[in-house]
Specification:
Pfam families: HATPase_c (PF02518), HisKA (PF00512). GO terms for molecular function: kinase activity. Its EC number is 2.7.13.3. The protein has 477 residues and is an alpha+beta fold. The protein is built from nine helices and 13 strands. The protein folds into three domains: 150 residues, PAS domain (Beta-Lactamase, 2-Layer Sandwich); 85 residues, Signal transduction histidine kinase, dimerisation/phosphotransfer (DHp) domain (Helix Hairpins), CATH 1.10.287; 162 residues, Histidine kinase-like ATPase, C-terminal domain (Heat Shock Protein 90), CATH 3.30.565.
Length: 477
Amino acid sequence: MLPLGRRSVRVRSTLVLAAMALMSTLAIGVILDTLIRTNAHDTALEETQRAAIQWIARARAGSAPHPIPTPGPVKLIQLVDNQGRVIDASAAADHMPPLSTIRPPDDDRIENVTVCRSAEGCGIVTAIRFALTDKPGDADPHYVYAGVEAPKLLASHELELFIGAGVIGLTALAAGINWRVSGRWLNAVESVRMQVSTLSMNNLGTRFGQPRQHELAMLTDTANQALDRLEKAVRQEQQFASEASHELRSPVAGLHTQLEEALLYPDDVDPRETIRTALSATDRLTQIINDLLVLARLRADPAPQETIDLGELVIQEATARSRDVPVTAHATSKVPVRGRPIQLIRVIGNLLDNAQRHANSRVEITAYRQDDLAVVAVTDDGPGIAPEDRERVFERFTRLPDGQRRDPGGSGLGLAISADIAHAHQGSLTVEDSPLGARFVLRLPLVESADGPAHPATDPVCSGERSSSGRPAQRRP
């Protein structure tokens, strides 16, 4: 037999409820039995006392008939003298010995007793001490006994048996109801468990049905939402793995072919050129692998967020840029956001790298407030991005023809990494219309800085604006 801790929830809940029902109904049964017995006993005593007192009143008035009359259910009445002799009696008690040997004392003239005789059963008797007359010389006490047969309820255990049967029946009913109700609930839980047991990577599209029970419906809704997120994440990972393997396969295959040719045809292949080409391929592989590691770390970055002045960050990054393509930076006095500095620096760096790569002569970056958002806009004067490609450029390993021409060794992950970082900071990264070239806009939630709450400003130049040269920046025409 299994111990209680290893049995099913259904068995345990039924046993616990049955025990509680048994104790409750048993207590109620004991109380009910006591009340019924007490009430029956008190009712019988009231009748015997009433009959005895009525006869005594008539005897003292000199109008007591012989034999003693028996009103109501009281059939046994006897008048007994101080010597224990029956002087008068009712018809039913005429030839009987005294109903009781109890002699109430003078200070307690009425006593009640239950008398049981093996042959005749039990009876309830009231004994009253009194004097036949009020004369001082008539001091010998007499006793009146009035008795009735004890009710069957008191003389047997039928009441206890009846109450016991009720206790067992109610306990069984409570256990049966719990067994059925808990079974219905647990069947629904078992159905969900069976569906969960069939889940695998091949059928993540499975969704749980909606049970009738509200709590289970909430559970299945939550599980379905979790499956939605899991399916989406798994598909993204599968797509990412497929795209990553495809992007890594090409340079690895090219490198393998070049090295194989150098070994097979040593007289026809320039070893220095082969090594140079191999180094270029390994550089591209290194860049792809580094970017893949960044994407993997974005989802589990343990670094805490802190308050950062985005305008100051923009000025610092613009100042550190190479001078091949000039970068002009504009920033308002305070643009505070919550984030991880290393990640936000990477976003700004990726956007500036991309702008400088495609610009013809200049790049402009601005940081300002707009309502409750911090905005960083990076604009170049290059060929721009066609409207139909503005969403696609943020997909992993996507490289437009102009980008492949200007940077053949690129991984196509820079903008995808930047978009993921923006989303991780509850922000967005988009491509917007620009009169000339491309315009990338990063938006992040503003926070209150130590100097007070952030107030909205307009793009791109405000009073107190800073630039990378340290002088007030001029608005771009």
